[in-house]
Write a structure and sequence with these properties.
The complex is a heterodimer of chains A (384) and B (125). Chain A has two domains: 171 residues, GAF domain (Beta-Lactamase); 152 residues, Heat Shock Protein 90 (2-Layer Sandwich). Helices cover 43% and strands 23% of the residues of chain A. Chain A contains nine helices and 13 strands. In chain A, the strands form three sheets. Chain A has a six-stranded antiparallel sheet with strand order 3-2-1-6-5-4. A five-stranded mixed sheet of chain A has the order 8-10-11-13-12, with helices on one face. In chain A, helix 8 packs antiparallel against helix 9. Chain A is rod-shaped and about 110 Å long. The two termini of chain A are 55 Å apart. In chain A, 33% of the residues are buried. Chain B has one domain: Response regulator (Rossmann fold, 3-Layer(aba) Sandwich). In chain B, the strands form two sheets. In chain B, strands 2-1-3-6-7 form a five-stranded parallel sheet, with helices on both faces. In chain B, strands 4-5 form a two-stranded antiparallel ribbon. Chain B is globular and about 40 Å long. The chains are: A alpha+beta (384), B alpha/beta (125).
C-alpha cells in the first residue's frame, strides 16, 4: 500500500493555510452541509456520513449523521488516509485492512467496518478532508452510489468556496467601512479644528489689538502671528493634524537666524512629536520668544545666542515635557514695563492650554523661559 | 437675583481654547462684567458651581473632558441664563437636548457675544 505514495505538490503548512482560508473550522452546524451528509447517507444506505476536515491535530466534522461527535483526534481518522488519495477511497472491511484494524473506532465502539470517502479538495487540488460514509458491516458501494458520493463531495467543495468568497467580501467591506469611518472622523476633526482655528485667529485679533498702539504695529504683529500659526499647522497637516516634531516647530521660528556665520542658536533635545494641543501653543510661544529676542534680546545684537533645550520625563505614568529657552550675549535685560501679548501668551495661555507650569526670568544676561507640561499622547485619528 | 461683585454681573466662561477664553474674558471685562474662570474643563466649572452661582455663562459645547451638558443642566436648574459658543453646528446631535439654549457658532464677533449676554442678563426676571 505504501509504494504508491508520491510526495504531494503541497506541504502541510500550505494545506492548513488553505483550510483556514475557508473560515469553516469551529463554525456551528449549517443546514446546507447537514443536508449534504444526509443525502450521502441515504444515497449510500449507510448509517453514518461525515464531512470531515483534517486540521492540525484533529479531524473536525462540519456535518455528521450517525456518529454523534463533532471531532476526533487524528490517530482515529480514516479520512486522513482517504484525503491523501485522489478521488474515492473505499475500504470494504476495515478489520481486514492493517492500516485501520487497530483504530479504536474499528476495534471498539462503534465497531466501524466499512468506509467510503471522497476527497474534498480545493480548485488548486489541495486536500482539506473527505466526505465519507461508514457502516457497521463490511460491504461495497454500487457504481451509482460511488458516483453520487463523488458528486456530493464536489457539492461540499462548492459550498465551501462560496462561503470563502462571501467571507472575503465581508472582510473587504469591513476594511472599506473602516476607511470610511476614518475619513468621516478626519472630516469632522478638520471641520471642528478649522472653526476653532478661526475663533483662535479672531481672539488673536483682539489680543493683538489690545497690546499694540498703531495700526501698522498691529498689522505687522498680527500677520507674523498668523504666519507662525500657519507653519505649525503645516507640520501638523503632514500627520493628519495630529502631531508635529518639536525640533521642526522651533526651526520654523529660528530658521532666519541659521544663515549667520556665527551660530545664533542651538536646539538640544531628543526627537519628540507634540500633539496638536501642545504643538500649537508651543509654536506660538516660540514665535513670541523669537520675536522678542530679535527686537530686544539676544538675537538683536551680533554676539547674542539662544539655547533651546528640551527633555522628557515620566512621573507616575505621566510623560512630561521640559522646555527651556535661554538667551545670552544680548543687550542687558530689564523686566518690561508693559505686559504685551507675548507675556500673556507665556504666562497665561500656556498654563491654561497645556496645563503647563511656566517660569519667565528677566535675568540681566538674558531672558530665561521654562515650561513643564504633560505630554498628551492620545490621537483622535489613528496612526497608520 | 444678580450675584453682583462690586456691582458688576458675573459671567462664567467655560472654554478650553485658552486664547479664545482669555479674549472672552477681556471682552467681558471691557463690557463691565466680572468673569468666573475661564474654566478649561467641565470638572473645574462644576467644582466652582458647588459654592457659587453666576448671572450668566458662555459655554463651549465640547471640552477636553466631555460635553458641557452637566453644567448646562445645572445652570438651567438654577435659572441662570446662558449661551453656547461652539465650533459645532447647532443642529449637530452633540447636545440635542439643549437646542432651546441660544447657540452661537464659532467664530462670532465678540460684540455679538457680549450683546447676547446683555440680553440674557436683562431678560432674566
Amino acid at each position: 500500500m505504501s509504494n504508491d505514495q508520491i510526495s504531494p505538490p503541497w506541504d502541510e503548512c500550505d494545506r492548513l493555510a488553505a483550510l483556514r482560508s475557508y473560515r469553516i473550522l469551529g463554525t456551528p452546524p449549517e443546514p446546507t452541509f447537514d443536508e449534504l451528509v444526509q443525502l450521502a447517507a441515504s444515497a449510500c444506505q449507510a448509517p453514518i456520513a461525515l464531512i470531515s476536515l483534517i486540521d492540525e491535530s484533529r479531524q473536525w466534522f462540519k456535518a455528521e449523521v450517525g456518529l454523534g461527535v463533532h471531532e476526533t483526534p487524528l490517530d482515529r481518522s480514516i479520512c486522513l488516509s482517504a484525503m491523501l488519495r485522489p478521488g474515492l477511497t473505499i475500504v470494504p472491511d476495515l478489520i481486514e485492512d492493517p492500516r485501520f484494524a487497530h483504530n479504536p473506532l474499528v476495534a471498539g465502539e462503534p465497531y466501524l467496518r466499512f468506509y467510503a470517502g471522497a476527497v474534498l479538495e480545493t480548485p488548486a487540488a489541495v486536500p482539506l478532508g473527505a466526505l465519507c460514509v461508514l457502516d457497521h458491516v463490511p460491504r461495497a458501494l454500487t457504481e451509482e452510489q460511488a458516483s453520487t458520493l463523488a458528486v456530493l463531495a464536489r457539492q461540499v467543495m462548492s459550498q465551501l468556496e462560496l462561503r470563502r468568497i462571501i467571507a472575503e467580501q465581508d472582510e473587504r467591506l469591513a476594511a472599506n467601512r473602516q476607511v470610511e469611518q476614518r475619513q468621516a472622523l478626519l472630516v469632522r476633526e478638520l471641520h471642528h479644528r478649522v472653526k476653532n482655528t478661526l475663533a483662535t485667529v479672531q481672539a488673536l485679533v483682539g489680543a493683538t489689538g489690545r497690546s499694540t498702539g498703531s495700526f501698522e504695529e498691529f498689522y505687522r504683529s498680527f500677520s507674523r502671528r498668523i504666519t507662525a500659526l500657519a507653519k505649525t499647522h503645516n507640520l501638523l497637516t503632514e500627520d493628519y493634524w495630529q502631531t508635529a516634531p518639536l525640533r521642526q516647530i522651533a526651526l520654523n521660528e529660528l530658521k532666519p537666524f541659521a544663515e549667520s556665520r556665527v551660530p545664533r542658536f542651538m536646539l538640544l533635545g531628543p526627537p519628540l512629536e507634540l500633539s496638536a494641543d501642545l504643538a500649537v501653543p508651543v509654536g506660538m510661544a516660540l514665535h513670541e520668544l523669537t520675536t522678542n529676542a530679535a527686537r530686544y534680546g539676544a538675537l538683536s545684537a551680533p554676539g547674542g545666542y539662544v539655547e533651546v533645550r528640551w527633555t522628557t520625563s515620566e512621573v507616575q505614568g505621566v510623560r512630561k515635557l521640559h522646555l527651556e529657552w535661554k538667551e545670552c550675549g544680548g543687550p542687558p535685560v530689564r523686566e518690561p514695563q508693559h505686559q504685551g501679548f507675548g507675556s500673556t501668551l507665556l504666562r497665561r495661555v500656556l498654563p491654561m492650554q497645556c496645563n503647563a507650569q511656566v517660569e519667565v526670568h528677566y535675568d540681566r544676561e538674558g531672558l530665561r523661559f521654562r515650561m513643564d507640561a504633560p505630554l498628551i499622547e492620545q490621537r483622535l485619528v489613528p496612526d497608520y | 437675583m444678580i450675584q453682583q461683585t462690586h456691582g458688576k454681573p458675573l459671567a462664567l466662561v467655560l472654554e478650553d481654547e485658552a486664547l479664545i477664553a482669555l479674549d472672552l474674558q477681556d471682552e467681558l471685562h471691557d463690557a463691565g462684567y466680572e468673569v468666573a474662570g475661564p474654566f478649561t474643563t467641565c470638572s473645574a466649572a462644576l467644582e466652582w458651581l458647588r459654592t457659587k452661582t453666576p448671572d450668566t455663562a458662555i459655554l463651549d459645547a465640547a471640552l477636553k473632558d466631555g460635553l458641557c451638558r452637566e453644567i448646562a443642566l445645572e445652570l438651567e436648574r438654577r435659572e441662570v441664563p446662558f449661551l453656547i459658543y461652539s465650533g459645532h453646528h447647532e443642529d449637530s446631535e452633540l447636545l440635542a437636548d439643549l437646542h432651546h439654549v441660544p447657540w452661537i457658532e464659532k467664530p462670532a464677533p465678540p460684540a455679538l457675544l457680549i450683546e447676547a449676554c446683555q440680553q440674557l442678563v436683562a431678560g432674566h426676571p
